[in-house]
Amino acid sequence: MKNLKKEDVITWWKERKERRARILEARRNSAFAKKMQPVYAFMNRFSLLFHALLACILNFVIEAISRHSVIEAGAYMIGTPLVFLYNAFMIFITFSIVYFFKRRIFVRIIISVFWLVLGVANGYMLLKRVTPFNAQDLKVASDGLALINNYFNGFELVILGVGIVSVVVWVISMWKRGGQYTGKMHRIRALIGVIICAALYGVISDQAVDKRVVSTYFGNIAFAYEDYGLPYCFMASVFNTGINEPNDYNEATMEAIAGDGALTKCETGRASEALPNILFVQLESYFDVSEAEFFTTSKDACPNLRSMFENYSSGYFKVPSVGAGTANTEFEVLTGMNLRYFGPGEYPYKTYVKEKPCESAASALSALGYGTHALHNNGGNFYSRARVFDNMGFDSFTSKEFMNILQQTPNGWATDAILVDHILDAMDTTEGKDFVFTVSVQGHGDYPEEQIIENPEITVEGIEDEGLKNKWEYYVNQVYEMDQFAGNLIQAIEERGEPTVVVFYGDHLPTMGLEAEDLKSRYLYNTNYVIWDNIGLPKEDRNIPSYQIMADVLERLDIHSGTVFNYHQQRRQTRNYLSDLELLQYDILYGDQYVYNGNPPVTEGHMVMGVRDVTLKNVVPHLDEGYSLYGENFTQNSKVYVNGEKQKSSFLNNTRIDFSGVELVNGDEIVVRQMGSSNTTFRKSDIYIYQDGNLIRQEGTATDKTISWVPQADEEEE
């Protein structure tokens, strides 16, 4: 290497390039190439027809991958030929751009790979959950990376990596191997052709909707993909987001719906001291397993909740998704808004509430003096909850980063038992009444086909397939532990002795390939709910959709606060209820907010992450290297910073962290930060100055708890 000269490198590279050019020229002039020239000329002359054939082949292949069956793909093609051809035409249009390029084969490959990747991604997603792959999954991709081990085993990750690398290498190699078009380029003609195709697609799309070949509303996104095909449904999820402006949206219409300010009132018929605490607990993938008709359990999997079902108001809980979509059930419960008016497969947490304020149950109850808190035993950044809850007006959010989680499911999810103490801690932060919204995670899939629980508390009978039996047995035992958590929470609330209402409900059915005929309700969008209380509410059983549950509970408590909740209380079961709800949602989120009359209930967030301060007591040097930092309220996500630099540290317990890689000197600043994914600082301690082996606290330098954590975190990142 030391004798290598720059001129030698240049000469070698030039000779390599010339050698490659000679090889390509030889190939072009070979006997085989000369024989193929008439074929290439024919294919170029009739390239549109070959594009159409290729589009049909690709459409069939991606549907076969998505449906995990060539036979089902064939049935779809033959059974709904107009839908199949409509999707093929969409793919065909994407091939029209090849006429702008000389390397047409390479561009065709890129386009084909794009569609095939969509098909493979969708096919794999449907192995793990019921909801198909859609544009909103791309918006939560960064969150999903943090949970990749929950969905991919080691072998699958290796295959995925090898597959991606192989495709990339092959595509790059085709840049030169694919050759170039040698005829005259007609880019103006190509542009006109693309415009004509786009216009024709618009006309055909309108006709397809009018003739009900496809639909612009997906009541069930999984069924929509089966009925209307992946290309149309995926593109609909890309371009059809938010709420389209209704035809009759105007100020006069909204004034009529608002009822002279009736929707924005904030009042209650109860005396302030008679207002109860209100707790909502969303149980991940929960439903009463006795609703399943194809298996039995060795004993009741949810005795505590069943006792509540029998003694308190309960019923079926209609949710907006199956097998996934936890955040969308949350959104409907917290806002009272109906997801049917949003784009197909959309997550408003990602498309709207992450960036903009949105009134919710938190803002509605804050107006009545409630302390409002959110809890989730998963990452604070997952589905952007830390920013979403801030924009919804919550006072605090305790995420996994503020919990010392010692017990996990065999799948790696936190068990729900830890939530009880943190719910009580949140309630202790205020002297008055509290609204606590809790999202559990224990019941989360994917559920293993191998028996990984030794001596399970509950066994399952009636399922012949061993893998499926193991999956249900695993799930049922998670349900049992979730039920124990529910029972322990109620016991703790009873011991607390404060008037309280607790609502338990499941966010969606588990990802188990359930069909309607498997369930007593014959409906895949039903879970279960119950309203427990210690204030003597009458038992009123009824089935209710998730977007109405908050308004229903508040009405039972004679609380009338929150624009959408007031709307449900006043207009439910009246004429134009749903159409006016769509107008109201559009006005609040995307319109001119006529209903607020210039006074929106939430203009900016003020939420604090966590409810406990991290404090430091002393730092003790090790005999060899490093230090032990002692304090209070440390968690596994507590990270030590010295003079603004993150140190290598190891969490030992809630009072001790060891760190190394630095030698402390007088004047050094030590801070402990609670860190989330993507290197987000959720909360930090006061600065402590190291002085002669002691720590001197700088009061008032911690995260400011009087304002939102978001701008402070953004400032830290800068």
Automatic annotation (TrEMBL):
Broad class of the protein's primary localization: membrane
Pfam families given in the database record: Sulfatase
Species whose genome carries this gene: Mordavella massiliensis
Location(s), subcellular: Cell membrane
Gene Ontology terms: cellular component: plasma membrane
Membrane topology, as annotated: Multi-pass membrane protein
Residue ranges of domain Sulfatase N-terminal in the record: 276-554
Cited InterPro entries: Alkaline_phosphatase_core_sf (IPR017850), OpgB/LTA_synthase_biosynth (IPR050448), Sulfatase_N (IPR000917)
Full protein name: LTA synthase family protein
Keywords: Cell membrane, Membrane, Transmembrane, Transmembrane helix
Pathways involved: Cell wall biogenesis; lipoteichoic acid biosynthesis
